[in-house]
Each structure stands twice: as structure tokens, then as C-alpha cells.
Design a protein that fits this description.
The chain has 174 residues and is mainly alpha-helical. It folds into 2 domains: 32-137, ATPase, nucleotide binding domain (Nucleotidyltransferase, domain 5, 2-Layer Sandwich); 141-174, no CATH class. Helix content is 53%, strand content 3%. Helix 4 crosses helix 6 and helix 7 packs across helix 8.
Length: 174
């Protein structure tokens, strides 16, 4: 958000997929998406035999269950993903210096146990004074909530104008 409004560039939203990221454990191309995606975690979990190479198996849920049950390789994978994400958050924070840091997405919401690793990597990587990181209150529904914010932005910005536009189209006056 910029100036209290959702920023919507004319050319569409940007992406953080190509931010630099490195993990020998997770692999990847040196870019954030290929390093921390669910697919990268699953490939590493199969390579380390945390899960079977069975495409029918609900694999990420299996990795999460294994980590919570104390399986060291599963915990290490998820901790490494959290570390890489924390470094990426630090990079973005140092570039943009936002007033608030709120993260969302399944890597944060499905495994909140990894937030300590995210925060440690963030603190180690950021060059700016410390700032708290919060996880979105929307949980796994952050994408739907974001779409709702953008959709309702016009209504909140000018409710009377929005009513006039809607009622003007159906021939009813407000």
C-alpha cells in the first residue's frame, strides 16, 4: 500500500519470484520461487526420503506432520525454507522500508513453528533497525482477502459515488 491505498500498477502486479535465494538443502535455481516453493520442499523431502516418491500422496501435509512428530530431516527442510524466506523479507524491507511488515502465504501460515527461523534470518540479514514481523490474520485465505480489498477499494474510497454508479446503471436514483 502507498499512501493508504492499494498500489495497482498499469502493467499489473510485480513479483518477488526472481529475488536471489540460495540453499544447498532445498536446491533451486538461485531464485526465491524455485528455492522455497512447495515443489522445492517436496523435491528435497523425496531426495532425503522424508516422504515417498508417490505423486498420489498429499506430500506437503506429510512433511508438516513429520516435522511436528519430531522427524529431524523434515524440521531441517522447513527451517531452511524459513531461513531463506527471512532473508528475502529482510531484502525487501531494506529496499522498501515499510512502516509495517506483514507476511502471508502457506509457508508462514501452515507452519507457524518456522517463524522463529524467519525472524532470526531476517534480523541477521537486514541492515535497518529491528522491526517486528507479523503473520497475516487471514491465514491461508490471504489471496482471497487481498482480492476483496482491491475489489472493495472503490466502494470504501467513495461510497456515495459507488452507489450513484450502480443505481445509475439500473435506472434507480439514490
Amino acid at each position: 500500500m502507498i499512501g493508504g491505498r492499494v498500489h495497482s500498477p498499469a502493467t499489473g502486479p510485480g513479483t518477488i519470484a526472481a529475488l536471489p535465494a540460495h540453499s544447498e538443502l532445498l536446491g533451486g535455481s538461485g531464485r526465491l520461487e524455485s528455492t522455497v516453493s512447495d515443489e522445492a520442499v517436496l523435491a528435497a523431502a523425496r531426495r532425503l526420503r522424508v516422504i515417498r516418491a508417490d505423486p498420489a500422496q498429499p506430500a506437503l501435509a506429510t512433511v508438516l506432520r513429520a516435522a511436528r512428530a519430531g522427524a529431524v530431516p523434515a524440521r531441517e527442510l522447513l527451517a531452511e525454507r524459513a531461513r531463506v524466506l527471512g532473508s528475502a523479507v529482510a531484502l525487501l524491507r531494506d529496499m522498501l522500508n515499510p512502516d509495517d511488515l506483514v507476511v502471508g502465504g502457506q509457508a508462514f501460515t501452515e507452519y507457524p513453528e518456522g517463524m522463529a527461523d524467519v525472524e532470526a534470518a531476517y534480523a541477521k540479514s537486514s541492515t535497518l533497525p529491528p522491526r517486528d514481523i507479523r503473520v497475516t490474520a487471514f491465514g491461508n485465505r490471504v489471496q482471497e482477502a487481498g482480492a476483496g480489498v482491491v475489489s472493495l477499494g472503490g466502494l470504501y474510497a467513495d461510497p456515495i459515488g459507488a452507489m450513484r454508479r450502480v443505481f445509475g446503471r439500473v435506472g434507480v436514483s439514490a
